[in-house]
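Protein data sheet
==================
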Amino acid sequence: MNILNNLAFKKKLFLLVLLPLIASLYFGIFNLVQTMDSQDKLLAGQKFLSLAIVNNALVDELQKEHGMTAVFVGSKGQKFANELNSQRRLTDQAKVKMTQVLCDFSSENREINNIIASIKSELNNLASIRNEIDSFSISLGEALGYFTNQNKKMLRLTGFFINISPKKAVKHALAYYNFI
């Protein structure tokens, strides 16, 4: 206590202000770091959500093409030829959107990157599968299996996003969107 009694009033006042200032600075920096971390997670979540939306739109179009392909091949080309061609154009439009989003998308998660690489690879086979369907050189089971496997991979991507989303509200929104 003698030390404080021997200090000048200015120095006592300085010490009185300095301790709360240091504490405020510490908690302010701590809060800033947490906020920046949350912002990074939300930006990543926004990228995931954008990809999930175009991914699910493509799944929807592929699923429609899957059904029309079943009728087309099952009828040996007698039914749904025009409808299938129209649906293929819609699928191609959704595929273009997916490709655009994937060009801008990057992830540090190896599993996401593996799923995306697999999706891209299989989407590159879509034109050849369609040619085989049109020429009836592929069985109905193989043709439908392509669509089923592709959709399964793509839905796995959306499911993966739900599991890694940082906020409970984002998880619920993705789960609901995936349900629809």
